[in-house]
Amino acid sequence: MFQSFDDVSEGHLSRERVTRLREELQRRQLDGFIIPRQDEFQGEYVAPYAERLRWLTGFAGSWGLAILMSDRAAIFVDGRYTIQVRQQVDTAIFTPRHLVEEPPAEWLEKELKPGEILGYDPWLLTADQISRFEKAAAKAGAKLQPVDGNPIDAIWAEQPKRPMKPVSVQPTQFSGKSARDKLDDVAKSLEKAGADAVVLTQPDSVAWAFNIRGGDVAYTPVVLSYAILHRKGEAELFIDTAKLPEDVTAHLKSIVRLKAPQDIEASLASLGREKARVQIDPDWTPERIRAVLAASGAEIVHGKDPCVLPKARKNAIEQEGARAAQKRDGVAVTRFLCWLDAAAPKGGQDEVTVAQKLAEFRAEGGMLKDLSFDSISGVGPNAAIPHYRVSRATALPLKDGEIYLIDSGAQYQDGTTDITRTVIVGTPTAEMKDRFTRVLKGMIALSRIRFPKGTCGSQLDVLARQPQWMAGLDFDHGTGHGVGSYLSVHEGPARINKSDRTPLEPGMILSNEPGYYKEGQYGIRIENLILVREPEAIPGGERPMMSFETLTLCPIDRRLIEPGVLAPEERDWLNAYHARVEREIGAFLEGAELAWLKQACAPV
Known about the structure:
Elements: H1 14-27, E1 32-36, H2 52-57, E2 65-69, E3 73-77, H3 82-88, E4 95-98, H4 104-111, E5 117-120, H5 127-140, E6 143-146, H6 151-155, E7 168-169, H7 172-175, H8 179-193, E8 197-200, H9 203-210, E9 212-213, E10 226-230, E11 235-238, H10 246-253, E12 257-259, H11 264-273, E13 277-280, H12 287-296, E14 299-302, H13 308-312, H14 316-343, H15 351-364, E15 368-371, E16 376-379, E17 402-408, E18 410-412, E19 415-416, E20 419-425, H16 430-448, E21 450-451, H17 457-469, E22 480-482, E23 491-496, E24 509-512, E25 515-518, E26 522-525, E27 528-532, E28 546-550, H18 568-586, H19 591-600
Parallel strand pairs: 1-5, 3-4, 5-6, 8-13, 11-12, 13-14
Antiparallel strand pairs: 1-2, 2-3, 7-9, 8-10, 10-11, 15-18, 16-17, 17-20, 18-19, 21-28, 22-23, 24-27, 25-26, 27-28
C-alpha cells in the first residue's frame, strides 16, 4: 500500500542493456529509437511493466525521454530532475539535456543524419509529439518510423506482467454526480463541438466519467483503460472484465458497453467506416489511435478532453470532501511534526524512518486508501533536489543544524491531499531564515490575492516568485498544479507557472508551493492546497473578484521565519492562519500534542 524505499536505480546495468537494445534496433534496420517515460495512457505514474526508461537508463523521475542512436544518446528532463538525472544515469552513454532549453525535437533536427531511420512506439507517444518529431526529422533529411512491438519489450526478459487490481465504484456520496449525468453532459459538449464521438485516453478521465476507481498504478486510483463516448449518449469502455467485481459490472453495464482492451482498434475502424467526426486530444492521444482513425476514413477533430475541465471544477460534494480530507490529513501531519520535533534531536532518525512514521500517523487517522505519491523526504543536500526520491541507499540521517523537507500526500475516498513542510533540526543560519521567509512571503501573496474572471496561473505565478526575484533568486519548478478528487494528485488543466494559459475557475483545487534550493546544502518548500472561490463583490469595487480558500491545515515552522522580513499584512495572514490551524486541528488533539500545537501556532 505504501511506498517502497528500496534503491530502484538500474544504472549499473545500463551499458549492457543499451548494447542489447542497439543490437535489436540493428536487427530491425533502425538507426535509433525514442524511449519516453510514459505508458500508453501518458500517466505520471506507470505500472512496473511500463518502466522502460528506468529499466534502460536508471532514471527514476516521473517525466523524461531518451533518444538512443547507434553511436550517441541523450536523455531529456525538466528543471525538477537536472540534479537527479546525473546521479542516476550513466552520462558516458546518455548526455543529459534540459527539456526547456533544448527540446527533443530541436535536438533531433541537429543530431539526425540524412537517411537515418528513427523508430518509435506509436502507443507511447502522442499525436502532438509525433507531429513535432516528424517535422524535425524531415528537416534533417531523416525518417520517423513506427514499430510493431516495442523493441525494449523484446529484450526485457523479466518484464513484469500487466496489473490486474480490482475496480471499485466511487459512489455519488463522494462523487456528487452520477455517471449517467456526466455522460449526458459530455454528449452535449460533443454536439456543441460538432463531433460524433470522442476517444478518452486518460485513465483519470475514464475513472471520473464512469465513477470508478482502480489500482493499476501506484498512488493514483485509476484503471488503465480507454473509452469512446458517442454524441447520442452511448459509450464503450475497453477494459479487462476480469478486474470487475459483480457490483462494478452491474454499475457499468447500465451505462456502457464493455469491450476487451484489444477491441479498441476495431471500434476506431468502425467509426472510420461510418465517416464519423471523432474528437481526440492531440496532447494526450497515442499516435496509434490517431493513425487508425485516419487510415479508416474518420474525420479527426482536435479538441481538449471533454472530461478534464468538469473534473477540475469540483462540485459542492467534492469540495466538502476535500475539506474533510485536508483536515484529517492535517491532524496526521501535525502529530508527525510534534513527534519529529522531539525525536530528531535525539538522533537515530533518517529520511526513510521519518517518512515511514508519517505514513503510520496517516493510517491511524482512518479512511486512508494510499499515499498520493512517493513522499519526498530529504534532509540537507537531498532537500535541495526538488523531486528527490528517497531510498535506503541514499537516506541521510537528520542532524543538528540541518533543514528537513517532507513533501507528501494521501488518497482518501473523499479527497486527495498534498502538503509540504520544511523544518529545522536545531538552530537555523541567518541565510536559511532569510530564504525560508522569502518562500513564505511568496506563498502568502498567492494565498491572499483576489483576481477577476479569466485570470490564469501564469498571471499569478510572479506573486510567488517576487520576494525571491528581489534578492536575485528563483526556483525551477511550477508554483502550483491541479489536484483531483480521490484521483490524480497532479491534475490538469489549470496550473500556476510561468506559461499556463488556462483560466482559473471556481471549484478548482491547486497547490501553492514556492521553493528555494541551494544545491548540495539545503532546500525549502512550503505547500498548501487552495480552492478557487466563486466571484464576490468587493465593497467599493466595480467587478466581482475570485479568491482562494486555503484547505491545508498544519503549522509552518516559526523557527525558520525572520519576522522583520514580513510585512504587517503578511504577519496578519500567518497569525490568522495559525489561529485557524490551532482551532480546527486542536479539536482532535490532546495532551502533549495539543500543547505542542499551541506553541507552534503562537503569533509571530
